[in-house]
């Protein structure tokens, strides 16, 4: 039915990041649609953005193409209520990290 090594959805030979960057699913530049709050590493950033009237905390990997910084599909967008839960549990997360290192 499906060829070996081909994904069932999305098709095409291009990587998922290129398919998303070409669509309307997200911002093409973090500065256009969101405020970069922290750069975790060279290609990982935390930003706050508004989409469809809601505010999200976005933790995402980016790549550079033709001088533009573009988002990949690798990441997570947290709604404000989800962000507050994560923020309120930072101590417990830090303690778990200490126990496991």
From TrEMBL:
Keyword Magnesium listed: no
Transcriptional coactivator p15 (PC4) C-terminal domain boundaries: 39-89
UniProt feature coiled coil, ranges: none
Keywords assigned: DNA-binding, Nucleus, Transcription, Transcription regulation
Subcellular location: Nucleus
Annotated segments matching region Disordered: 1-37
GO cellular component, one term: nucleus
BP term (GO), one: positive regulation of transcription initiation by RNA polymerase II
InterPro entries with a match to the protein in the record: PC4_C (IPR003173), ssDNA-bd_transcriptional_reg (IPR009044), Sub1/Tcp4-like (IPR045125)
Transcription as UniProt keyword: yes
GO molecular function, one term: DNA binding
Family: Belongs to the transcriptional coactivator PC4 family.
Protein name: Transcriptional coactivator p15 (PC4) C-terminal domain-containing protein
Organism: Miscanthus lutarioriparius
Lineage: Eukaryota, Viridiplantae, Streptophyta, Embryophyta, Tracheophyta
